[in-house]
Specification:
It is a single chain. This protein is α+β, with helices and mostly antiparallel strands and about 425 residues long. It has one domain (about 10-415): Cytochrome p450, CATH 1.10.630.10. The protein has helices at about 10-15, 15-25, 45-55, 80-85, 95-105, 110-115, 115-130, 140-145, 145-155, 160-175, 180-185, 185-205, 210-220, 225-240, 245-260, 260-270, 275-285, 315-320, 355-370, 405-415; strands spanning about 30-35, 40-45, 60, 135, 295, 300, 305, 310-315, 375, 400. A hairpin with a 2-residue loop joins β6 (about 300) and β7. The longest helix has 20 residues, at about 185-205. The chain is globular and about 60 Å long. The termini are far apart.
Length: about 425
């Protein structure tokens, strides 16, 4: 009997991990009805999730599994959404490699390292502003503006457009749950399409040394990016460039507050920040499930027959809490080694922006913990609300009381 799971329920969003543990034990492959793809198969075990990223029988573009048919070809899916959906994450070689090569130069270790000073400056300014308040919403006041500012500057997005874009993006992510959700979000999609075309026009008229200019110029070379590919690429980079980091900082801060002994260890041993960020990625799971994969042929797995063309959804959040892969998997341990989490995926579709997300998360958490050693939740934990998106795992808000020690405040003022 297939277990019933309501991935959108507030109770599940607040704590999905007991359900995932039960599924790994009783039904590691879960058959569900997906609002877009119909019958789909969730993978819950670490080994199955890892295999799904490298199994040649699984592809990211459904057309390569079912002979050209597109799951977005429903009457209720506006063309705008089809353009957004056909991005680098939902493509296979050689298209995937062609698109990935275009943006890879923006996320090389050297380029990311060059961003360090800019990230430090933004973090300092945001925490200076936070220090003037008795309480803050860490999401709105810190976790969101940091990565949104960084990726917007890399992409050349005007400052006055950034928060509007984020609000529209949030509407798309949290409410696309079937025909009604798609139709209700159509105005948002039209607004975003207008926004992207405006950006493209701006960079054609005024080229700059930014990633968007490079993409526009590549598109103009003829056979590199089509207009639709360019729009979907901008959509993906702006989405992936800030949403994951928002959740890393928000979920990570909450996890540390829930485990005061680990927070204290990080304060006493700031050199642990690298392994702490990796553990917070594993434990907090800023991405709950990646883009779907599709079976090119019939696959037999854990007693299930996955037919050709079927949708396969690896649950990263379940894999990262799998007891067979991680000792004391439900315990936060900032010294955990090895830590082979799959928070950024694996294989050819490994997250291109992972180095940037790690840099931003490291600097943000490092400074936050040092500046506000006595920070605590401003509301009971049960009052926290999680976003409705089943792809990304993040808090709607994280109200905190900040109380930096006098010595630290004095030292900063003196500096």
């Amino acid at each position: 009997m297939t277990p019933e799971i309501n991935l959108k329920s507030p109770a599940f969003r607040a704590d999905p991990y007991p359900t995932y543990a039960r599924l790994r034990k009783e039904s590691p492959v879960v058959v569900i009805k997906h609002p877009i793809f119909g019958k789909a198969y969730y993978l819950t075990r670490y080994t199955d999730v890892v295999s799904s990223f490298t199994d040649p029988r699984l592809v990211n573009d459904r057309r390569n599994a079912v002979g050209g048919k597109d799951p977005m070809d429903h009457w209720w899916v506006p063309r705008l959404f089809r353009i957004f959906q056909r991005n680098m994450l939902s493509s296979d070689a050689p298209d995937h490699r062609r698109q990935r090569d275009l943006v890879h130069k923006a996320f090389t270790p050297r380029r990311v390292d060059e961003m360090k000073q800019a990230v430090e400056k933004i973090v300092g300014e945001l925490l200076d502003a936070a220090q003037k308040k008795q309480s803050v919403d860490l999401i709105a006041d810190f976790a969101l503006p940091l990565p949104l500012t960084v990726i917007s500057e890399m992409m050349g997005v005007p400052e006055e457009d950034r928060l509007t874009f984020h609000r529209q993006m949030g509407g798309l992510l949290d409410n696309l749950t079937g025909p009604v959700g798609f139709l209700l979000q159509t105005p948002n999609a039209f607004s975003m399409m207008h926004f992207f075309r405006k950006l493209i026009g701006l960079r054609r008229a005024e080229p700059r040394d930014d990633l968007l200019t490079a993409l526009v110029q590549a598109e103009e070379q003829g056979d590199r990016l089509s207009e639709d590919e360019l729009i979907s690429m901008i959509f993906l980079l702006l989405l992936a460039g800030h949403e994951t980091t928002v959740n890393l900082i928000g979920n990570g801060t909450l996890a540390l507050l829930q485990h005061p002994e680990q927070l204290q260890k990080l304060r006493e041993h700031p050199e642990l920040i690298g392994s702490a960020v990796e553990e917070l990625l594993r434990y907090g799971n800023p991405v709950e499930q990646p883009s779907p994969r599709f079976a090119k042929e019939e696959i037999h797995l854990d007693g299930h027959v996955i037919p050709q063309g079927a949708t396969v959804l690896p649950l990263l959040a379940s894999a990262n809490r799998d007891e067979s892969a991680f000792e004391n998997a439900d315990r936060l341990d900032i010294t955990r080694k090895p830590n082979r989490h799959v928070a950024f995926g694996l294989g050819a579709h490994y997250c291109l922006g992972a180095p940037l997300a790690r840099l931003e998360g490291t600097i943000a958490l490092q400074h936050l913990v040092r500046r506000f050693p006595d920070m605590k939740l401003a509301v009971p934990e049960e009052k926290l609300r999680w976003r409705g998106s089943v792809g990304l795992r993040g808090l709607k808000a994280l109200p905190l009381l900040l109380s930096p020690s006098g010595a630290q405040a004095t030292a900063r003022e003196a500096a």
